[in-house]
Amino acid sequence: MPVFDALRDADHPGLELRHLVDEELLARARREGPEAVADEVRARLADAVADGAPVVLCTCSTIGAIAERTDVGVPVLRVDRPMAAAAVAKGSRVVVLATVASTFEPTVALVEEEARRADRPVEARTALVEGAWALFEAGDSEGCARVVAEAADAVADADAIVLAQASMTAAEGLTTTAVPVLSSPRLGLAAAADAVRRVRAAG
Description:
Elements: H1 2-11, H2 23-32, H3 38-50, E1 56-58, H4 64-68, E2 76-78, H5 81-90, E3 93-98, H6 104-118, E4 123-128, H7 132-137, H8 141-153, E5 160-163, E6 181-182, H9 185-202
Parallel strand pairs: 1-2, 3-4, 3-5, 5-6
Helix pairs in contact: 1-9, 5-6
C-alpha cells in the first residue's frame, strides 16, 4: 500500500485510493491455481464497486487475469499490463523475474498477449528469485529488494527485465544492469488514473 500511496502523491495528487488487501487469495491461488479463487475475486471486486469505486486496479499479478475478465460494471485493470506492453516495445527477449512461481504463467501469458497485440515477436524466459519472498513475508522489504536487484543484474541476453510483482518494485532503483528493468506500479497506477478521468468525463 505505501508504494501506491507514494506514487499517487507524486504523480496523481487528489486521486483517492482505497486499498483492499486479502492475503488469503494469493495463498490459495499459489496452492490451487488462480482459477480456484475466481469466485472470491469477483466478490472482492463487487465489494469495491459497492463501496463506490469507479475503477478497480488489481495489483496482484497472480490473480490479475482473473480480475481483469470479471464484469462488475466498472473498469477493472491489472497493474502489470502497461508494464508488459512496455517490455515488448523494448525488444523480443524478455526475462520475467518473480519471487513466487505462481506469477510466471499469468505474466508470461500477458507478455505474449501484448506481443501479439503489437505484432512483435517475443521470447519470454522466467527466473525465480529464490529466498526473496521469504524475506518479504518476514517484513524485510529492503533485503527482498537487494536479492531481486542482484538477480536482475545477473540476467544476460535480454532486451527487458520484468519485475513480475508490485512487491518487487523497490529493486528497480537498486539494479546496475544496462538492460531496462520494468516494474508495474507507476505504469499501472497511471493507467488507472486515466481510466478514472474517462469515467468521470463520461458520467
